[in-house]
Write a structure and sequence with these properties.
Two copies of one chain form a homodimer.
Chain A (H helix, E strand, L loop, with lengths): L8 H19 L4 E2 L1 H8 L3 H9 L11 E2 H11 L6 E6 L3 H8 L2 H4 L2 E8 L8 E2 L2 E5 L3 H7 L4 E4 L3 H13 L4 E4 L12 E4 L2 H25 L1
Parallel strand pairs in A: 3-4, 3-7, 4-6, 7-8, 8-9
Antiparallel strand pairs in A: 1-2, 5-6
Helix pairs in contact in A: 1-4, 2-3
Chain lengths: 220, 220
């Protein structure tokens, strides 16, 4: 995997999308694809695809296209998907349950190792065979198991406390769903999913669309 | 709101984060803030903040800082948050339930108008007082109600069909949680939340971190 350190964040951000589309192509029985066809499938330009994949030594042969399975596997390696990761979920509410029930994560190597909730009534209830544990048992669990990723699905104020505890216990990465930016040391990876911000990008686009429609009407 | 058409996507993407941080500051009773203090709070440079907010005519006075409530309100207007939006949720599984239960969305003007699911057993069950309706009732519902945003939380293959139906019924925007890119006409806004891709950004960063730690160890 050459020149990886010089890859821009923009390219990195696109890799999971390549991985997903190549998986869809494999499901459809496509074995080989040109950058032109892949570009149609993904709705980006062919030159963008060639540029992106050149960062990783190309994988393609001129006039011959890409081997779909091989390209997907190599992108998977770059994304670290050739390893397994232990994931715990903090918060067994609807969002936590949705994550625990999402079997696709396990297919790509993200194994749910535990689910924790502060609500004593949930203790011992099972989600896809995994028993919900008390938050009190979290530090001990983290001592015994090498957990890579903790998904935080608890409300904002609780999330900060939970993050502090996870950091103390030496967590490597936090997948944050709480409506706040967590303050953690630089060595801890934080990936946030801010659903409210995603909704606001919709309302922004709705407003812009409405205004441009309004302007067109006025011009008539 | 001057010069809005020239605002880059990067700035637009940052606005929801400003909105959230300014909300946190208001909760803390902060009425006025300098770009320096705001930059510490948000962990971006002060010059970035000044640049970003200058796109919207500034809002700040030299040596006097920003009025937190006013700035938040103006950013809210840019984000279209001075209006209410009707949202429906397709899929009453854990993720759909999580969205329906998230009261924060309503605080920012996104009102849940209906929840739909193809499972007949769920019909009539209530989520936060809202009855789950059959997918068969969706076209009629869309005819009668002006729905702005439809959140799709059903599995990938069903999602494509649902999207087609929504587009036919004249939906303005789709909030897509399915593990695929939806094919819709250009006038339909699509905002996707791809949780798998978010996880892959974590595994990528874990791999890079591990390799750099490994290299440091080898150098010793």
């Amino acid at each position: 995997m050459p020149e990886q350190n010089t890859i821009s964040n923009a390219v990195i951000k696109r890799l999971p999308r390549y991985y997903r589309h190549l998986g869809e192509l494999m499901e459809q029985g496509v074995e080989r694809i040109s950058s032109g066809e892949l570009s149609k499938h993904m709705n980006v330009t062919a030159s963008q695809i060639r540029q992106d994949l050149n960062h990783f030594g190309g994988f393609g042969q001129q006039g011959y296209g890409y081997n779909v399975a091989f390209l997907r596997q190599e992108i998977g390696k770059i994304l670290g998907l050739d390893k397994q990761y232990k994931v715990i979920i903090i918060g067994a509410g609807n969002l936590g349950r949705a994550l625990a029930n999402y079997t696709n994560f396990e297919k790509t190597g993200f194994m749910i190792a535990g689910i924790f909730d502060s609500n004593p009534e949930l203790k011992g209830t099972k989600i896809r065979g995994i028993g919900v544990q008390s938050m009190k048992d979290l530090p001990d669990f983290l001592l015994k198991q090498k957990v890579d990723i903790a998904a935080i699905t608890v409300p904002r104020d609780a999330a900060r406390e939970v993050a502090d505890e996870l950091v103390k216990s030496g967590i490597s990465a936090i997948w944050n769903f709480a409506h706040t930016d967590l303050q953690v040391p630089d060595h801890v990876i934080v990936e946030s999913v801010h659903l409210s911000e995603s909704l606001m990008r919709i309302s922004y686009n709705l407003r812009v669309k409405e205004e441009s429609t309004g302007q067109k009407k006025n011009r008539k």
